[in-house]
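USER: Write out one fold?

ASSISTANT:
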Amino acid sequence: MIIKPDAVERGLVGEILARLEAKGMRFVAAELRQMPLEVAERHYEEHRGKPFFGELLEFITRSPSLVALVEGPEGAHAVVRGLMGETDPKKAAPGTIRGDLGTELPDNLVHGSDSPQSAAREIALFFPDLA
């Protein structure tokens, strides 16, 4: 997962980590880092060519993010995404990270892999020594 620049800037990292830990997720690795543009481009490759691609890159590279490898029971990616809430914070349900703490796009606080395949790709990108 990624705790994005807006969450780091607002001092919400501890709150977000606590919510995941309370749900039974474990952090295998985590690192605060400034995302290089080339890594951001690879991460958001599926959005290349879309009108908001440049905005995504500007947002994720503007200041440090916390990239983390999260483990839990089978289907952990679905649990994490459920805790995150809808992509658009204005549509996210209360009780979710985005619903309680988010404001508006593109600032939506967190990213979580949407499938085991995406998780494997993202782990290789952000934690190649653990892939």
About this structure: The beta strands are 2-3, 26-33, 65-71, 110-111. Residues 116-126 form the longest helix (11 residues). Residues 5 and 62 are 7 Å apart (CA to CA). The chain has seven helices and four strands.
